[in-house]
Design a protein that fits this description.
Quinone Oxidoreductase, Chain A, domain 1; ER; oxidoreductase activity, acting on the CH-OH group of donors, NAD or NADP as acceptor; 18 strands; oxidoreductase; zinc; Enoyl reductase (ER) domain-containing protein; alpha/beta; binds zinc ion
């Protein structure tokens, strides 16, 4: 059974794309199977804002034809000889990263997500020259370091979006000490932001949600946010702000957010806008008087992913999702672009595998 899987996915093709969201099912060549690899038959894949930025070429020219998707859950069908702790039949996930050098200082410090030679799950290039293809597809091969066992208590449809959206906000919350006695602000309540509210509450922090969308108000209360703010500035109140915004308009004052930070507070952006969308201007006066910091965070490590899954398991945390078959991918992508999603679309497998 192990060698019969056909690699096919919903791809943006190499012919000049008429429309970024018009995908068609194509067969493609997977990476060469290596002794550390796990081959996974995909059952679910979440739709991330990164997929939209990549398909619209907002982060630069993409390597077409390309299958995107990096919130993957499926069943293991084959493991290489070096693979430990994962076996055929296991339910596992893969997130936004699928490779790293394994021996630099970052990789050896459980910071493989910061490896300078990290390979993204799609639109990257493996050492054998094959372009990495994502999870709107039948199957994926991944090095065991980037394959995460899913606890039995978490359903696949719930685990999928934890692989990127969940982990991307879990990592900075953990790193910067979200917990009892801390006040955490979350800017932008979409796929990532809704996870930031859920995790920060589960970690015991007091949560301030910032949104411009009053229609999300009731949802955000149900997610557990303690305070919902639209524009009332909070002076020197917060220990940490996680910004999930991936569009910065020049009227959005970064200074307003920085002024909300308590001494040594941190503003951490996890959103990555298009290449031409720079951060709003600021001045040293916004940092020095409270000793605050401005920084960023890139997905998370395997260690953090396993911790996050354990938190979701033990606190029974479920994301807010909408499921649809993979053939509805166009609707999902456009829903993300137009901010219609509440709060993550999860595509379920429907490609005939023969
Ligand atoms: Zn993502
Ligand atoms: Zn490395």
């Amino acid at each position: 059974m192990s060698n019969t899987i056909q690699f096919k996915g919903y791809a943006l093709t190499g012919k000049y794309p008429r429309k970024w969201s018009d995908l068609q099912v194509l067969s493609y060549q997977p990476k060469t199977f290596q002794p550390d690899d796990v081959e996974i038959a995909i059952t679910h894949c979440g739709v991330c804002g990164s997929d939209v930025h990549t398909l619209t070429q907002g982060w630069g020219k993409s390597k077409l034809p390309l299958v995107v998707g990096h919130e993957i859950v499926g069943k293991v069908v084959r493991v290489g000889d070096n693979v430990k702790d994962i076996k055929a039949g296991d339910r596992v996930g893969v997130g936004a990263q699928i490779g790293s050098c394994m021996h630099c200082k970052s990789c050896e410090s459980d910071y493989e997500n910061y490896c300078p030679k990290g390979i993204p799950t799609y639109n990257g290039e493996y050492p054998d020259g094959v372009i990495s293809q994502g999870g709107y597809s039948t199957a994926i091969r991944a090095h065991q370091q980037f394959v995460f066992p899913i606890p039995h208590e978490i359903e696949s449809r719930h685990a999928a979006s934890m692989m990127c959206a969940g982990l991307t906000v879990y990592s900075p919350l953990k790193t910067h000490g979200a917990g009892p006695g801390k006040k955490v602000g979350v800017v932008g309540i979409g796929g990532l932001g809704h996870y930031a509210v859920l995790w920060a509450k589960a970690m015991g922090a007091e949560v301030y949600a910032f949104t411009h969308d009053s229609s999300k108000m009731d949802d955000i209360k149900k997610m557990g946010a303690d305070h919902i703010d639209f524009h009332k500035p909070l002076s020197r109140a917060l220990d940490l702000i996680i910004s999930t915004r991936d569009v910065f308009d020049q009227n959005m004052s970064l200074d307003t957010y920085l002024s909300m930070l308590f001494v040594h507070g941190k503003f951490v952006t996890v959103g990555l806008p298009d290449a031409n969308n720079v951060l709003p201007e600021t001045h040293a006066f916004s940092f020095v008087p409270s000793g605050c910091f401005l920084g960023g965070s890139a997905i998370g490590s395997k260690k953090e992913c396993l911790e996050m899954l354990d938190l979701a398991r033990s606190k029974k945390i479920k994301p807010w999702i909408e499921e649809m078959p993979m053939c509805d991918v166009k609707k999902a992508l456009e829903g993300v672009k137009q901010n219609k999603v509440r709060y993550r679309y999860i595509l379920t497998q429907d490609i005939e595998n023969k």
